[in-house]
Amino acid sequence: QAPKKAKKKIDGGSNVFSMFEQTQIQEFKEAFTIMDQNRDGFIDKADLRDTFAALGRLNVKNEELEDMVKEAPGPINFTVFLTMFGEKLKGTDPEETILNAFKIFDPEGKGRIKADYIKEMLMTQADRFTQEEINQMFAAFPPDVSGNLDYKNLCYVITHGEEKD
Q: Is 157 exposed, middle or buried (0-12, 13-18, 19+ CB in 10 A)?
């Protein structure tokens, strides 16, 4: 009788790639590639500093970058990156996840982002938005009189379906 081939047991938590759909993994890969500024396959402090600079945040403290890198169990390759997101996203609701994504563009935590700034980011980074997509977004969520986008309200509508009063 031929020996049985050992089957690798995959439980829900061991294989990080099973936690996400293929499209999500592709989006994380794009984000990882954008952040891996020197293209060495790892995200380190220098990559984080360059990523923040590309987003317009220039004077990031060294300690802040070190704390981010220390969150990882070791060098941050794509699998570690995905695992870290998996752990962060486990148990979070979609609204919180989307809010956290917007907070990257709002370091002061005001709850608003300049509409021109978010438009530029959406049209120049990763899966670039077209002018038509930007127009649709601003038609549904017009910026206020100061030209700011209330992203907290936007996140609520995205996840709950109607505006809060």
A: middle
